[in-house]
Each structure stands twice: as structure tokens, then as C-alpha cells.
Design a protein that fits this description.
Elements (H helix, E strand, L loop, with lengths): L9 H30 L1 H27 L3 E2 L2 E2 H4 L3 H30 L4 H25 L7 H9 L9 E7 L2 E8 L1 H8 L8 H15 L4 E6 L11 E6 L2
Antiparallel strand pairs: 1-2, 3-4, 4-6, 5-6
Length: 245
Amino acid sequence: MSKTHQQPDKDALIKMVFDSLHLTVLHYGLWFREAEHQLGLEKAIAADERVWDKVLETTLKRLASAAGTQLHNGIPAALNNLSEEELAGLADEMAKNWVACDGIWFQDIEHNYDYEMFTTKRINDSNWVRFSNIEAHLIMQRYQLPANGGLPVLKEALQHRQYARICKFEFEEKANKLIVRINECRVQLARRKRGLAEYNCKSSGVAEYSYFALAIDPRIKMRCLSCPPEPHPKEFWCAWEFSIK
């Protein structure tokens, strides 16, 4: 005698929705990573630029249909009705969530597999090589910035990064040079509040800023002026110099 299939209860259904989101994010990342492996990073980024808008469109349509909400030009009404100030606050929270998720991954690998932090930093630095390249391309596409635009385009692009929404920074411009100083670093300040030592972030910073600049304009060279674990003044945590000939 066959057993009757029981409909999951409300809590189980909510968890199923979250599982679907989890698997969608993982599957998307696996597609990108394997496309990079088979075709190279540049072609994977180009594919992502074509694919993401379609994925977002079909996802929003299905969510809106299931929730019984309206879409206006493909945007949920609840989001469309927010003021510019409210949207800016939401963008800030999304940026904070992005860096928090990055930190959760870092800490899990460090605490469970790598007490000397060697492997964790290697994973982190490798991720920054890819992420910085991807983010630079996304920003150039979103804001229609020209390729090979030199330091002016780099300066514009840096102001649209996720980090730009959660860290305070300043620019100094010289002849054929652009210096960026991070005055308030959310990650380092969080560590200080928890009584932890400054994070040795120079290797990841070198990967992050050099590959971001290369994606904007391959002629741009990057040089680290100061970054933990090196000493730095109270006015800033790290400083990076970009130059072009």
C-alpha cells in the first residue's frame, strides 16, 4: 500500500524557497566558473553581461507572479515606489551585505581548514583577481564608460564600486598619476571593534586594485604606497598610486 504524499508545512515551504535561491546562486556561479575555465575570463565576463539581464528579468517575472505584485518596466512596484533617498539606503545595505558575505566565507575557511591563514588568503586573493575584473567591466557597461579611457575613467569607475558605498576615501591627482586613499575601511574598523589585529590585506589589495585598473585600461600601472601590515598614518588605512605613460 503506497503512502500518501504529504504537503510540506509553511516552515518547510519557506525553507524550500530559500534553498531554491541558494541553488540558483550556486548554479549561476558554477556556470560562470566553468565558462571561464573553458573559454577564458574575458569571454565568461562577456557571457555574464548577456545572461544576467535575462536571468534577472525571468526571475522578477516569476516572483511577481507568485507574489501577486505588479511590475513597472520590469521593476517591482515596491522598489519602483521608493524615493531616491530610500533607494540609496537600500544600495548601501546591499553593499554592506556583499562585504559581509565575503567575510563569512573568509572566516569559515580560516576557522575550519586553515589556522595559519595561508590557504584562506590564497583563495581570497584569487577571488579578488576575478571579482575586480568582473566589477570593472560591469561598471563600464552600466555607466557607458569608454575603454582605454586612462586615469579619468579609472577615477570615475572607482566611485561606482561596491566598496565606494561603504568606505570613505579620497583622491589626489598629479601629472599622469592618481592616488586613492581609504580613510575609513569597514573591514579593518570591524576587526578593531572586535579587538582583533589589523588584517594583512596588502596581497589582496594588490590583486584588487591592479586588476581593476587593468580592466579599465591596460596601460595603467598600480603601485601600493601603504597597506597593512605596513605602518600607516591615522588619516588613512591604505593608499594606492595609479600612473599611465
